[in-house]
Amino acid sequence: MAAFAAHTGAATSLRLPSSTAILTSGGGGRRRRRWGAAAAASRVSTCSAAGRGTVVIGLAADSGCGKSTFMRRLTSVLGGEAVAPRGGNPDSNTLISDAATVVCLDDYHSLDRTGRKEKGVTALHPRANDFDLMYRQVKAIKEGRAVEKPIYNHATGLLDRPELITPPKILVLEGLHPMYDERVRGLLDFSIYLDVSNEVKFAWKIQRDMAERGHSLESIKASIEARKPDFDAYIDPQKQHADAVIEVLPTRLIPDDDDDDDDEGKVQRVKLIMKEGVKHFAPAYLFDEGSTISWIPCGRKLSCSYPGIKFAYFPDTYFGREARNT
């Protein structure tokens, strides 16, 4: 990520100068707004982002795969604590730090929760998302123009009044579809896909949706089964376009005859797949670049010796492209 920090230049002020561009959602048939039609009128003027413009990073993953947690860690690495916009909608999905703005692509749902039920589609289906608006607004931010971005309210399932997003140094697009639309994908300077196995995803989703959102186990299972065809069709294929893929899999360090399911649920195997030849990005390696290495640290030097830890690094291919696995 250091390469991106160096590439972005000086910080962009969050104050709006008199010539700030504002690109609003405009028309488009978005459903069940709780705000007046006047808010949808398009207004565009001009301004430019500071430094070398806005760097755009895309992060794709299924629901419940840790995108929000990953984003908080990423923004802290990029600089500053990520917080919700001050004075804005308390249900906003946007996070802002000193260096980055994180936009949740759920905000570009074209159908609210009721609308999706009426049409029989999930949020993963392209028909439930406004890719035209997504493309126009991401392009505008990258070109130095502010936008009035919609807000999808996860608590109510409705589309709330838009919020103002000004061009940051780094714009992170996290959600289901940052690489689905070819136009949006072409605006990304770097892309990441979180590829969480079904076993781990199920455990995480139960923890989040039961503990944090009050859903029942039966409803979570039904939701996962209903979403799987659309995940396989529209979300999972995006990983072939990603510059880096983070796979989260069940651990291999716990023996099959170990009956402690609690330990197994807390320990995962993580694989970082980095494609070669990506602009502004040099893949990481372990000890010796280009080698094949496996390393098990001394258990006595670990804060927790069980089940231990193992590192590996090796060149590989991923969807026909040279890559490195760590």
Describe this structure in words.
- It contains 8 helices and 13 strands.
- By secondary structure, the protein is an alpha/beta fold.
- It has one domain: 3-Layer(aba) Sandwich (Rossmann fold), CATH 3.40.50.
- A hairpin with a 3-residue loop joins strand 3 and strand 4.
- The longest helix has 19 residues, at 217-235.
Put simply, the count of helices is 8
* Number of beta strands: 13
Largest sheet: 10 strands, mixed
Mean pLDDT: 79
Low-confidence parts, pLDDT < 50 over ≥5 residues?
A: 1-22, 24-29, 31-50
Ends apart, CA distance between termini: 16 Å
Shape: globular
What is the alpha-carbon Rg in Å? 21 Å
The CATH architecture classification is 3-Layer(aba) Sandwich
- Could you tell me the strand content as a percent range? 15-25%
CATH level-four homologous superfamily name: P-loop containing nucleotide triphosphate hydrolases
In CATH's first tier, which class applies?
A: Alpha Beta
Number of domains: 1
How do the strands line up in the largest sheet? Answer: 3-4-7-2-8-9-10-13-12-11
Topology at a glance:
Blueprint: H1 2-8, E1 22-23, E2 55-60, H2 67-78, E3 95-96, E4 100-104, H3 113-119, H4 131-142, E5 146-152, E6 159-165, E7 170-175, H5 182-185, E8 190-196, H6 198-211, H7 217-235, E9 244-250, H8 261-266, E10 268-275, E11 293-295, E12 311-318, E13 321-325
Parallel strand pairs: 1-5, 2-7, 2-8, 4-7, 8-9
Antiparallel strand pairs: 3-4, 5-6, 9-10, 10-13, 11-12, 12-13
Helix pairs in contact: 6-7
In short:
The protein is an alpha/beta fold and 326 residues long. It has helices at 2-8, 67-78, 113-119, 131-142, 182-185, 198-211, 217-235, 261-266, and strands spanning 22-23, 55-60, 95-96, 100-104, 146-152, 159-165, 170-175, 190-196, 244-250, 268-275, 293-295, 311-318, 321-325.
